[in-house]
Design goal:
Layout: H1 2-15, H2 30-36, E1 42-46, H3 50-59, E2 65-71, E3 80-85, E4 89-94, E5 102-108, H4 113-124, E6 130-131, H5 133-145, H6 151-157, E7 167-168, H7 170-180, E8 188-195, E9 201-208, H8 218-222, E10 226-229, H9 231-234, H10 247-251
Length: about 250
């Protein structure tokens, strides 16, 4: 009980934005992002909270959060997401929840509509589940001290949650959901030599599933099985049509 109370208070503190945090604006207008998103896409978010800083430090990545796109409830409507909030837990939110933040769309390739529904269904079945507060306490220790850690250990630090089935972390919940249809994110790949029907030697890839607790938002970005989709390019990009300001050019170097 006491641990849970400390965890909730710490979660609220870590979830607060850092006023001194400087970052660039979003790279695409929200209407372009909305028009590009599809059901089943993973949206990566660069958060600005203390909690986000801890995750970005431990993963050495831009991305601190991940959410699953459910698509728009109606034609032309705002896309919605299954999202895991450190204070509220698993919930659904509109795209506007991430307005003003740096975003990236990562799209799985080749999933059927039924398979996408299975992934979304796994997420939706967990609405109301709490955030894994044990993970909050582990992250807080490393946010305060920020010790130099080897990369494999940093990943293990994010896997120190309680493991209770009614508690979730955004990237681990997504990993579990894609695991329902056996869609790879960043598996361990074993290369084996094998004989082909023609008698030639060839190398076969055997994928080994990594435990869902070891996944972070960064993994969807670097995964060879997710396509990075850029809204400006999807909307039809022609650099000849860009309008440039020549103020800096006329001013010259300082």
């Amino acid at each position: 009980m006491a641990l849970g109370m400390v965890g909730r208070r710490l979660a609220r503190f870590l979830a607060q934005p850092r006023p001194e945090y400087g970052r660039g604006g979003p790279t695409s207008r929200m209407e372009l992002v909305a028009a590009t998103l599809r059901r089943g896409d993973v949206l990566l978010v660069e958060g600005t909270s203390r909690f986000s800083s801890a995750i970005k430090y431990l993963t050495q990545s831009t991305w601190s959060h991940a959410a699953l796109c459910l698509g728009a409830p109606e034609e032309g409507g705002e896309p919605r997401f299954v999202d895991v909030d450190v204070d509220v837990g698993v919930r659904t939110v509109p795209l506007s929840e991430f307005a003003g933040l740096h975003l990236r769309i990562c799209r799985p390739v080749g999933l059927s509509a039924a398979e996408i529904d299975a992934v979304a269904g796994h997420m939706l079945e967990r609405l109301g589940h709490s955030y894994d507060l044990k993970n909050i306490l582990d992250l807080a220790r490393y946010l305060v001290r920020q010790p130099p850690l080897p990369d494999p250990l940093k990943r293990r630090m994010l896997a120190l949650g309680s493991g209770e089935p009614t508690r979730a972390i955004c990237s681990t919940l997504l990993a579990q959901a894609f695991g329902v249809v056996r869609y790879p994110i960043l598996p361990e790949i074993e290369l084996l030599d094998a004989d082909t029907a023609s008698g030639r030697r060839a190398r076969a890839e055997i994928l080994h599933i990594r435990h869902h607790s070891l996944y972070t938002p960064r993994d969807f970005d670097v995964s060879p099985f997710f396509q990075v989709v850029k809204p400006r390019l999807e909307a039809g990009f022609d650099f000849h049509a860009l309008v440039w300001s020549d103020v800096e050019a006329e001013r010259g170097p300082l």
